Amino acid sequence: MFQTIGIISKPRRPDLAEIVPGLLGWLKERGLTYQYDLETAAVLGATDGRKREDLAAGVDLLVVLGGDGTLLSAARAVGGRDIPLLAVNLGGLGFLMTTGPHELYSVLERVLEGDFHLQYRTMLRGQVLREGAAVATYDALNDVVINKAAMARLIEMDAYVDEEFVCSYRADGLILATPTGSTAYSLSAGGPVIVPSVAALLLTPICPHSLTNRPVVFPDTAQVEVEVRSTDDASYLTVDGQVGLALRNTDRIRCHYSPNRVQLIQPQRLRFFEVLRDKMKWGER
């Protein structure tokens, strides 16, 4: 089923010095080929690492060693290719990570035998339109966020859905999130928990200057546009908290569902609320 395994690693993790060589030896013993990203190459002291986008183009399965941030980066690198991701948690919370390092080889054995479940996660496509032209396009597994820059005042924004005016915001920012992202930044900003299988797009204001500005859930068919009305460089767009660019006055951020989706390998049928309780202590008294 899988012949070429890709390995993506979190930078500067001391425990990878033992995990990565062990994993490569395990794969080699089974006659499997492997490739790895630049971060994994640094662990090995090698020079044959590849950029993550290039790596994803030549493998059948990606093993992600790190935390949620590493997985978010890997998901964007896959770029809609039909490649499952096995997420191994070496970080802290690891809400999206399904496997611990102590389970790595037993889970991989089952995966190679075809004994696993696939969970499909939707992605959000965000475009920055400047003077009518798209100057940047991103796919996000979690969220596309409009933030105020350092020392900036409140951002003024107008939101539209399917070209219909929704409302004006004066806030520290806006979060446009997928169901996967509903348990990330949006949750901290007072947004609802959305089960990953629900086809929805979430708009959550960050510290709005109005008690009536509440989070709104749209169907997955919606196209949301936000026009920024602030001085140049007073606001910033971030994608999954990792990439982005400075925004200018009258920039429009257009978001809708991406045609790309992420395939996460589930070694067993994990229950969403069980994960919420276990990793976030959700609903505990």
Describe the structure.
The protein has helices at residues 16-29, 38-44, 52-56, 68-78, 104-112, 185-188, 272-280; strands spanning 4-9, 33-36, 61-66, 84-89, 117-130, 133-140, 143-148, 155-161, 164-171, 173-177, 200-206, 216-219, 224-228, 235-239, 243-247, 252-266. With 285 residues, the protein is α+β, with helices and mostly antiparallel strands. It folds into 2 domains: 4-116 and 267-280, Rossmann fold (3-Layer(aba) Sandwich), CATH 3.40.50.10330; 123-259, Tumour Suppressor Smad4 (Sandwich), CATH 2.60.200. Strands 1, 2, 3, 4, 5, 6, 8, 9, 13 and 16 form a 10-stranded mixed sheet that branches. The chain is globular, with a radius of gyration of 20 Å.
Reconstruct the topology from this structure.
Layout lengths: L3 E6 L6 H14 L3 E4 L1 H7 L7 H5 L4 E6 L1 H11 L5 E6 L14 H9 L4 E14 L2 E8 L2 E6 L6 E7 L2 E8 L1 E5 L7 H4 L11 E7 L9 E4 L4 E5 L6 E5 L3 E5 L4 E15 L5 H9 L5
Parallel strand pairs: 1-2, 1-3, 3-4, 4-16
Antiparallel strand pairs: 5-6, 5-16, 7-10, 7-14, 8-9, 8-13, 10-11, 11-12, 13-16, 14-15
Defining traits:
single chain; 285 residues; alpha+beta; Rossmann fold; Tumour Suppressor Smad4; ten-stranded mixed beta sheet; six-stranded antiparallel beta sheet; 39% strand; globular
Q: How would you sum up this structure in a few lines?
A:
Helix content is 21%, strand content 39%. It has 285 residues and is α+β, with helices and mostly antiparallel strands.
